[in-house]
Design a protein that fits this description.
Layout lengths: L16 E5 L2 E6 L9 E6 L8 H12 L4 E4 L15 H7 L1 H7 L2 H17 L4 E6 L2 H11 L5 E2 L10 E8 L5 H11 L6 E10 L2 H4 L5 H21 L15
Parallel strand pairs: 3-4, 3-5, 5-6, 7-8
Antiparallel strand pairs: 1-2, 2-4
Helix pairs in contact: 4-5
Protein name: Alpha/Beta hydrolase protein
Keywords: Hydrolase
Length: 248
């Protein structure tokens, strides 16, 4: 499984706070003013984790749309540095295989699960999940385990609605696989939608180069798709606010 693609840093100042939940360091982004605390979005980051401002800024953007967002530290601080995405030499120097062996999906699932239990204990009744690159696999795992009521990415054996924001250039999820998923989940009763963004490549929604118009538009549209999906399946009472990416 390849996690390393070219990416760029985005700009902005994160506005959330860090909090320990079930002993796990988490980034928490809350909506301004009063909001329902019975629903929440758990955000599963890419391999750069909470060290990458892009992840924190995206959490803030979801919060602006009315959601309580919790992003667990998936890797206990052992995040992949952004420099590892900038050249093949940097990837080799970082030690990709060592990192992957330490942070298998099964290990990370077990590490993060107590956060779900803690949120339930706090009165959160419905939990949605969204994941990027590495984090996408975790959304599938938690959906299969029945821990998510709505998910941005999904697996057939789960019973939660599934939204897949795919892209044209992706070795991990190529067009042939995208077609297979569409056929497999056509008519899926809980809800299914898949969209492919032309001119975008793997990582576009979190590390894409926003100076490229098609990538910027793809990132914004994927975000809007996800917000609308959560509004429908997590809490249909709240209205979608305008998202412009002005801070990204």
């Amino acid at each position: 499984m390849s996690l390393f693609v070219t990416g760029v840093r985005h700009e902005g100042t994160p506005e959330g706070t860090f909090e320990e939940i079930a002993g796990i360091r988490c980034y928490v982004a809350e909506p301004a003013g009063e909001y329902s605390k019975s629903g929440a979005v758990v955000y599963f980051s890419d391999a750069c984790g909470l060290s990458l401002p892009n992840n924190l800024l995206l959490c803030d953007d979801f919060a602006r749309n009315g959601f309580l967002v919790v992003a667990p530290d998936l890797f206990a601080g052992d995040d992949v540095p952004i420099s590892a995405f900038e050249s093949g030499v940097a990837v080799k120097a970082f030690g990709r295989e060592r990192w992957l062996a330490l942070h298998t999906p099964a290990h990370t699932f077990a590490r993060v699960k107590p956060v779900f239990d803690a949120l339930r204990a706090r009165g959160v009744k419905r939990i949605a999940g969204t994941g990027y690159c590495y984090g996408g696999r975790l959304v599938f795992d938690f959906a299969i385990a029945g821990a998510l009521d709505a998910a941005a990415r999904y697996a057939r054996t789960a019973r939660a609605p599934l939204l897949v924001n795919a892209c044209e250039i992706d070795r991990e999820f190529p067009p042939t696989m995208q077609s297979a998923v569409r056929e497999l989940l056509a008519g899926f009763e809980p809800g299914f939608k898949q969209e492919c963004f032309a001119g975008c490549s793997h990582g576009f929604a979190i590390r894409g180069d926003l100076s490229i118009p098609r990538v910027k538009q793809g990132k914004e549209d994927a975000f809007t798709n996800t917000v609308q999906w959560f509004k429908t399946y997590l809490d249909g009472k709240r209205l979608l606010r305008t998202h412009t990416n002005a801070r990204m």
